[in-house]
Design a protein that fits this description.
Strand order of the largest sheet: 2-1-3-12-11-4-5-10-8-9
Structural class: alpha/beta
Low-confidence stretches: none
Order of helices and strands: EHEHHEHEHEEEHEHEHEHEEHHEEH
Strand content: 15-25%
Largest sheet: 10 strands, mixed
Mean pLDDT: 95
Bound molecules: nicotinamide-adenine-dinucleotide
Distance between the termini: 25 Å
CATH superfamily of the largest domain: Isopropylmalate Dehydrogenase
Radius of gyration: 21 Å
Number of domains: 2
Length: 358
């Protein structure tokens, strides 16, 4: 059956990098139908909203959304709900995307881009599973008030509520254990159970769900220790699962281990495995329209889409292997270029990946 993909390229370098991902997928003659929609600043310019109804409808009807990037400084002064970046939050909410998968892969050819010693990161391949819809970011009550107690009664204070329900933790736990089953069968759950009640419930629930996955070794780690281990010995980690707040911070830390933001893909999935796939970087307005952006994160996002939403794991591997091959061949866009390598444009990098596929 032909599956439908919503192509939302967005702003800045979005179009240039999306063109390369489409080039790669079309070269594979996959049973996919592509339909494009406007999102972000370009959608605001055309429809007065960063996530117009027609785009939302397209996303809901599709099996997966391949997303470029949004963000345009021209719209930074708009009311918050009309800014380009709000489109991502709107899509997450409308599609019920509760899990974020963020791989951090350090290709051996690019270890010099990392701020860590090459031996610590060469060959790094870890996956962070972050819960996306709960935690202190969304917990009520929240607000500003005169402090009713504490050290400074009567003073202005801000407050938020960290909360997770058991079913919320259960569903992310299942995703994490199943992901670990497909990898090294080692799962690290990150919390702060020595201090937080929410974390204790998280930990108890993880332990209970672990019984359903006896082949997976579950290890618990406090978030402060996890932050340390990520820079001390990241290769000892394989799959990490954590809540929204800790995941937000640790996923950026893990991403930076690789040093090359133009290489990192990410996915957000719902219970039906419908997903939104996007590079981890933004719209890079400083280099937009120059055909110099690195399209590999977008191409690797397409590979993730084939694996996690479209049940095409072999095709995903084919793309990932093609990317590894172009790196081995020495092709580099400006952001990852180093002495002795061949500097290529965004479109030339796309062509090189297509050639490597064959
Ligand atoms: P950015 O990721 O767009 O750019 C940071 C730096 O990395 C820039 O120097 C840029 O040129 C470079 N860079 C990023 N992607 C690259 C690529 N593929 N190839 C080569 N170089 C690349 O972050 P920013 O500058 O902080 O934000 C720019 C805009 O993007 C803002 O409007 C921001 O809100 C938005 N943004 C969007 C997303 C998203 O769409 N998911 C994420 C982050 C930022």
């Amino acid at each position: 059956m032909v599956k439908k993909i919503a192509i939302l390229a967005g702003d800045g370098i979005g179009n240039e990098i999306m063109e390369q991902a489409l080039k790669v997928m079309r070269a594979m003659s996959l049973p996919l139908e592509y339909e494009s929609g406007l999102v972000g600043g370009v959608a605001y310019a055309a429809h007065g909203h960063p996530l117009p109804e027609c785009t939302l409808k397209l996303a809901k009807e599709s099996d997966a959304v391949l997303f470029g990037a949004v963000g345009d400084y021209r719209y930074d002064t708009l009311e918050r709900h009309l800014r380009p970046e709000q489109a991502i939050l709107g899509l997450r909410k409308a599609l019920g995307l509760f899990v974020n998968l963020r791989p951090a892969i350090c290709f051996p050819e690019l270890t010099s881009a990392s701020s860590l010693k090459p031996e610590l990161v060469a060959g790094l391949d870890l996956l962070l599973v972050r819960e996306l819809t709960g935690d202190v970011y969304f917990g009520q009550p929240r607000g500003r008030r005169k402090s009713p107690d504490g050290f400074f009664p009567g003073a202005e204070e801000g407050f938020d509520t960290m909360r997770y329900s058991e079913p919320e933790v259960e569903r992310i736990a299942h995703v994490a254990f199943q992901t670990a089953m497909g990898r090294k069968k080692h799962l690290v759950s990150v919390d702060k159970a020595n201090v937080l009640e929410t974390s204790q419930l998280w930990r108890d629930t993880m332990n209970r769900i672990a019984k359903e996955y006896p082949e997976v070794t579950l290890e618990h780690m406090y978030v402060d220790n996890a932050a340390m281990q990520l820079v001390r010995a990241p290769k000892k980690l394989d799959v990490i699962v954590t809540g929204n707040l800790f995941g937000d911070i640790l996923s950026d830390e893990a991403a930076m281990l690789t040093g090359s933001i133009g290489m990192l893909a990410s996915a957000a999935l719902n219970e039906k495995k419908q997903g939104l796939y996007e590079p981890s970087h933004g719209s890079a307005p400083d280099i937009a329209g120059k055909n110099i952006a690195n399209p590999l994160a977008q191409i690797l996002s397409a590979a993730m889409m084939l694996r996690y939403s479209l049940d095409m794991p072999d095709e995903a591997v084919a793309i990932e292997e093609a990317v590894k091959q172009v790196l081995r061949q020495g092709y580099r866009t400006g952001d990852i270029w180093s002495e002795g390598c061949t500097k290529v444009s965004c479109s030339e990098m796309g062509d090189a990946v297509v050639k490597a596929l064959r």
